[in-house]
Design goal:
With about 110 residues, the protein is α/β, with parallel strands linked by helices. Helix content is about 40%, strand content about 25%. The protein has helices spanning about 10-20, 35-45, 50, 65-70, 95-110; strands at about 5, 25-30, 55-60, 80-85, 85-95.
């Protein structure tokens, strides 16, 4: 199960992603429910917390949270961003599951 879906308020997004000051990796999928690639990747993304239990996963529907879309300059969905200490450490645009998994594996145990 995802740590949370951050859709309701931009304040939740700021608290759980931008101002989360921890060595723990935070992975955010920005999606648009009207996008075929987003719809295809979403069920797979929901399985990631069981594979990576030490990572916080969030999903942001950019239609419900335009502030996050604008702040993060999301131009393509899905986009996955990896954060540590509120800083972006990697961005993956598109539905490349192997690339997303490899990025999470790479950064999961790395301290910053």
């Amino acid at each position: 199960v995802l740590s949370s879906g951050i859709n309701a308020e931009y304040g939740d997004y700021e608290k759980h992603v931008l101002h989360f000051k921890s060595n723990k990796l935070v992975v955010v999928e920005y999606l648009d429910c009207g996008c075929a690639d987003s719809v295809t990747v979403a069920p797979w993304f929901y399985t990631l917390p069981t594979k990576f239990p030490n990572v916080n996963f969030y999903e942001v529907d950019i239609e419900d949270n335009p502030e996050a879309k604008n702040w993060e300059k999301i131009k393509k969905t899905p986009t996955v961003k990896l954060f540590k200490h509120g800083q972006i450490i990697q961005v993956i645009e598109g539905a490349d599951k192997n690339k997303i998994s490899a990025a999470i594996s790479k950064h999961e145990g790395m301290g910053l």
